[in-house]
Specification:
Protein name: Proteinase inhibitor I42, chagasin
Pfam families: Inhibitor_I42
Organism: Methanohalophilus mahii (strain ATCC 35705 / DSM 5219 / SLP)
Structural class: mainly beta
Strand order of the largest sheet: 1-3-6-5
InterPro entries: Chagasin-like_sf, Cys_protease_inhibitor_I42, Prot_inh_I42_chagasin
Radius of gyration: 26 Å
Number of strands: 18
Number of helices: 1
Order of helices and strands: HEEEEEEEEEEEEEEEEEE
Keywords: Protease inhibitor, Thiol protease inhibitor
Number of domains: 2
Helix content: 10-25%
Distance between the termini: 101 Å
CATH topology of the largest domain: Immunoglobulin-like
Strand content: over 45%
């Protein structure tokens, strides 16, 4: 009887251990580290909206035409280094932005360069990037990123008005200055300065947008460059003034956000003729 009792206790202990291990494993799989980056692409299959980090460099993934996905790579423009990214013809860049570090008070802290893509054609597609200073030659010691996509599905036709000749992005704004004209009603504009990544990229002035939400003006300054152009790899400074529609505003404090860079101004009185 003792032998049977010990055997039963051993079986219970084994069962308990298996249950605990399963719980721990499930908790570990659910934890994404708080990064918001999809590091668990099931069987290397991209889902619509997936975001990948640099850890996926060198991988091959399965994907479908028409889907969107993004790649987030650490970048520190203050050092002069930047990612130079290229894609095959079946991949379209629909978003290009720089996300500054969470603590912008830390001098020299790195942020993230984020591209958003749409898969336009089937077959084997490729994304490659190299991290270097634009004016330096390639040595072979640079950090690189590569991703191969095996795509299935029908090719996606460009939307009306989309000729596919340009790659669109978001301007990297370093500083803004709010300009207040000494007049009444008060007229205000915001002067944005920064650097474009190469000699082909320009400010897409026709598509600059300004949207007021509460007491905040959100200004988006986009860029564009010819898709197949061979560009000089050198930073190009830019400066652009964007008028703000402030007529009729009540007196108070207002914030201006231009591509993530903020400043504020105050109206001493209601900005309206009486």
């Amino acid at each position: 009887m003792k032998i049977n009792t010990y055997a039963g206790a051993g079986l219970l202990l084994i069962a308990f251990t298996v249950v605990v291990a399963a719980v721990v494993l499930s908790l570990g799989c659910a934890d994404d580290g708080g990064t918001g980056v999809n590091e668990s692409v099931d069987a290397h299959t991209l889902n619509n909206g997936t975001e990948l980090s640099g850890e996926w460099s060198g991988n091959t993934v399965n994907a479908s035409t028409g889907d969107y996905f993004s790649i987030r790579l650490e970048e520190n423009p203050s050092t002069g280094y930047q990612w130079n990214l290229t894609t095959s013809d079946g991949i379209k860049i629909v978003g290009d932005k720089f996300e500054p570090p969470e603590n912008e008070d830390v001098v020299g802290a790195a942020g993230f360069h984020i591209w958003t893509f749409r898969i336009m054609d089937d077959g084997k597609q490729q994304i490659d990037a190299i991290y270097k200073r634009p004016w330096e030659n390639v040595t072979g010691e640079e950090d690189t990123f590569s991703l191969t996509l095996e795509v299935e599905g029908e090719p996606v036709a460009p939307a009306d008005g989309d000729d596919g000749e340009y790659v669109y992005g978001t301007a990297n704004v370093d500083d803004i200055e709010i300009m207040v004209m000494e007049s009444f009603p008060v007229q205000i504009s915001v002067l944005a300065t920064g650097f474009l990544p190469n000699g082909c990229t320009v400010i897409d002035e026709a598509n600059i947008t300004t949207e007021k939400t509460g007491n905040t003006f959100n200004v988006h300054i986009p860029t564009k460059r010819p898709k197949d152009a061979i560009c000089t790899q050198a930073l190009v400074p830019f400066e652009i003034s964007v008028p703000l529609d402030v007529y009729g505003l009540e007196k108070g404090n207002y914030t201006v956000d231009v591509n993530g860079v903020q400043d504020s101004f105050e109206l001493q009185s209601d900005n309206v003729l009486k």
